[in-house]
Amino acid sequence: MSQSVPAAPEPSKMYRWIVLFWLSITMMGNYFFYDVLEPLADVLRNQLHFSNENIGFLNTAYSGAAFFTVVIGGFVVDRIGVRRALLLFGIVSLAGAALTAASPIFAVMAIGRGLFGMGAESLIIAITAAVAKWFKGKELSFALGLNLMLARLGTWLAQNSPSWAHFAFDHWRGPWLVGVCFVSLCVIGPTLYGIMEKRAENHYALGAAGESDKIVPSDVKNLGLSYWYLVGLCVVFYSAIFSFQTFGVTYFKDAHGATIDRGGFLLSIITASTMFGTPIVGLFSDKMGRRATMMCLGVLILLPVFLMLGYAHVSLFVPMAMLGFAFTFVPAIIWPSVAYIVPSRALGTALGLMTMIQNAGMAAMNAGLGKANDMAHAGPANPAGYLPMLHILTVMGLIGALLAFLLRQREVGPHGHGLETITAG
Fold it and tell me: Most exposed: 62, 144, 205, 353, by fewest CB within 10 Å?
């Protein structure tokens, strides 16, 4: 008579949190290198004589590469597994970061930035799948929240790098090299994660990897009108706020007489707001519902910010705090709302498509704002040259207000999906 083999135990809670730490510092290195361009922009303009359009294109190159990578990133994760995908995408990210720092030639720097974007956006897909593998059915929402909080710590450190890494800003390559050091975490983290996962496979029972965001054309027909309103809102928020951040430090310096240190700190108010505000807004929406209404509130807060920067004589802390609070609604409400609106079988397609369109919007807006600043001759001798940029961003807010209103009207009507009513128990 055969004896049953005892089931393998699950990993301990401590083991899972250590795994999450390696995944999170991987994401932190990724975020740092993307955002270090913000305080570096003025140095590139002065030392390498880059135009505003050149600087905007460095982020356009990232988003443009990410636009195409989202299509294949999820399939690569499914094909070779989370462990190998994390290391592969981390190596691509590091290679792109190193190439960005290698040469003062704009074309080389842009190619490096694009290569970094290919690795970095795919890395995010793989990290999300890995977190789900370890935490699904347990503390998944909390784990994803902590992962995002540590990732945004990378953004906060990048925006404040003129203060704590001031030595690096004497030369254009210095901040990039500091960024390369951070991107090395994108290789170190997956390596240590891989060791822990391989050991766990021999000793513990592990869950399956989470569903990767990848676009399956046949699923697109299942996406309804409310989904496309959410996509529009996502594009408005990310394109407006991230592209403003690209030029923010330079704008604060030229138009408001701020130092690079202070300009970076002002931008980091947005990051700090989302780091700590997103869990609060997310918890409130889980308990109260009213997601569409809260998105209307977020857009209404966003709407006057850029006009305040251009015309109101108020402390810069006020519009930056408003911008930060408005932006908390994106990760806290918009992304989770997709799961309420889209059938579960099409969720990977919906999230992948939203990410792809979001990156397309960011690519276009970064290039467009850079061009607008150059055409208006924006600079320290002509601060008013930044007004067209602020007007464009205000129009984006108006489009967002219209989309938020239409979404709420649909959700309170007979074709709603429960965004206003569904609460967590």
Answer: 205
